[in-house]
Amino acid sequence: MAQIFSYILHKDGVVDDTALELAAAAKKIDAGATPNAIVVGSGDSLDAVCNEMVASYGEVWKVANDAITYPDAEMIRKLLVNILPADSILLFAHEHLGMDLAPGLSVKMDSAFVSDVVDVEGADGATLKLVRQEFGGAVSAHVTCDASQGAVMTMRPGAFAADESKGAGGQVVDKSAEAGDLAVNRKFLEIVEAEAGDVDITKSEVLVSCGRGIEDEENLEIAFDLAKAMGADVSCSRPIVDAKWLPKARQVGTSGQTVKPKVYLACGISGSFQHMGGIKGNPFIVAINKNPKAPIFQVADVGVVDDMLDFLPELTEKIEEL
Amino acid sequence: MEILVCVKRVPDTSENEIELNGAGNDIDRDDLVYSVNEWDNYAVEEALQIVDKVGGGVTVISVGDDESEEVLRREMAMGADKGILLSDDAFEETDGRGIAAVLKAAVDKGNYDLILTGAQADDGAAQVGGMLAAMMDVPFASLVNTIEVDGDKLKIGREIEGGNQEMHEISMPCVLSIQTGINEPRYVGIRGIRKVASVEIPTMGAADLGVDAAAVAARVKRADYFLPDLGEGAEILEGDTDEIIEKLIELLKAKGGLK
Ligand SMILES: Cc1cc2nc3c(=O)[nH]c(=O)nc-3n(C[C@H](O)[C@H](O)[C@H](O)COP(=O)(O)OP(=O)(O)OC[C@H]3O[C@@H](n4cnc5c(N)ncnc54)[C@H](O)[C@@H]3O)c2cc1C
Ligand SMILES: Nc1ncnc2c1ncn2[C@@H]1O[C@H](COP(=O)(O)O)[C@@H](O)[C@H]1O
Q: Is A295 in the pocket of ligand 1 (CB under 6 A)?
């Protein structure tokens, strides 16, 4: 089987949680393999990242380059094409850098591409057997990938249990000299930080969270009423922010806020991984959804199958009576 | 500016419960309501707004069967000037890379400054835009949530974690994949649809595009669908509404959910 490489995400010397998840995924692809890691960046912290990764990877390919102080996908794609052996199996985290970089990389490497992989069932020769989800997690699919000419894959963050064995005893290999020409037609300018909102939902202990099931802007009132009765704050899923019904600062999820409440009431929310990815600290999750097959019921602690537009006002009333 | 927007016809998940068919090898496609992929609608709106500001035209394009025509027409009712349907039996069993190859062949027949795709479609692959850019050898940016035209360059924002935004300058031609929320797509009324009902939509097949079998041979294939078994799942509260509420209030009290 071809060599497997994981692309390591890191920031200010801190390695992302996905680094060890990718190591686990690599072993699921090929139990006998010692996967390799690629660490790209600049500055002093790069060595710390590489030294941490030798515990979990065989070879840690370090590419130090002053042009890549910010991880710019266009440049990194060129760099990877320059340094990687053809036919490799390359693993990325399915997040905003991986999404920017990986599909195009597969074309440039002439490899197969599979995104947002949630499980690996093994390999049959050069055919990888993978699991994905479709329709926002409503159904799963077995997918086969012909990796005979290599493969590029993005793996869902949190889907693979981190490989904490740390017994790889690897070594750092400096590949910086092989980076080659990195000129691109896209220039990174700056990061614009999110605006602070009227409430800081990251501090809330109890959240009443609304999704697309709220149906109409006016209906938000029933969520605010319930939140008031409970002493909670109102948060939401992305479509509510897209519709401009609530400010971005109230959005829970990978592209919104990471919240750590004690109790989370998910009302009319289907339970996409991007939404659930913003809920940490293992809260008590109550799902209120009119579709008994909504994926949220797989991850919630308690479920109520009902129309939230009827249920929430009744719940509010009963709580107010207490 | 000439803008091409790639659009896909997908089952509308807000209108349908997605379920498996009896054999478990596909979703149950009977009675599914289809519509344009949510992300693509934002992409078309963005293209229309850019052209309103700087002039030019918007073409919408789709790889699909005859029924994809209805989606093209809907986007033309929004204001797109032209629609192109890419359809051939040879495209049916292909993968994302094949779709990108077909789109690339069509792009080569036009003269576009900017190509927009949605960030992702129904199967959440988020792949076609980035692949198309790589095949065209032009720059790409994904998850774009602002676009500002500045001569022959664009200043764009990409959505990253925590609601933060990554700003870039990108030269044209380029491919951008559009994230939801970038704008508020305009409403399409029945009258708008009627207006474009008889506009001809040219169809191109593999031979017209010069796409050979190798270009659309799938390396990635779906074997089957199944329902995931993610452990125990939620305890569903049963009874009439009063009983459910009573149980829920007890649980909320116990877990610190009531102050
Ligand atoms: C790169 C990227 C980043 C993303 N980041 C985020 C993020 O940070 N946060 C986020 O939330 N999403 C994010 N998303 C979007 C995410 O993929 C989903 O599309 C989104 O979470 C769906 O929101 P929802 O559950 O409210 O809507 P839907 O998936 O449409 O679900 C609505 C649910 O409401 C139920 N319902 C409908 N009517 C009623 C009613 N009257 N009563 C009760 N139930 C009802 C339905 O059965 C359904 O289950 C991101 C997507 C991408 C591609
Ligand atoms: N069959 C298709 N025809 C036209 N565009 C498509 C097609 N499939 C995908 N796309 C485009 O690629 C984007 C991302 O889709 P995907 O990579 O399939 O998740 C979509 O939002 C569309 O813009």
A: no
Do A62 and A158 belong together in one domain? Answer: yes
What are B22-44's pLDDT values in tens digits?
A: 887 888 988 899 999 999 999 99
**A189 within some domain:** no
Total domains present in chain A: 2
Whole-angstrom Cα distance, residue B141 to residue A114? Answer: 19
**How far is residue B46's CA from residue B52's CA, in Å, rounded to a whole number?**
10
Contact between chains at A303 and B237 (C-beta distance less than 8 A): yes
Tell me the residue range of the domain where A286 lies.
Answer: 201-321
Q: In angstroms, rounded to a whole number, what is the distance separating the alpha carbons of residues B226 and B232?
A: 17
Tens of pLDDT, residue by residue over B120-153, are 999 999 999 999 999 999 999 999 999 999 999 9
The CATH T-level fold of domain B2-216 is: Rossmann fold (3.40.50)
B32-60 burial string, b = 16+ CB within 10 Å, else e? bebbbbbbbbbbbbbbbbbbeeeebebbb
Enumerate residue ranges in chain B where pLDDT < 70. 230-231
- A191 inside domain: no
Question: What residues in A contact B130, CB-CB < 8 Å?
Answer: 99-104, 107
Q: Which residues contact A32 (CB under 8 A, 6 or more apart)?
A: none
Global pTM value: 0.97
Domain boundaries, chain B: 2-216
Structure tokens at B119: 């960030």
Would the CB of B185 count as within 6 Å of ligand 2? no
Q: Are B86 and B204 in contact (CB under 8 A)?
A: yes
**A94: CATH:** 3.40.50.620
Residues A31 and A162 in one domain: yes
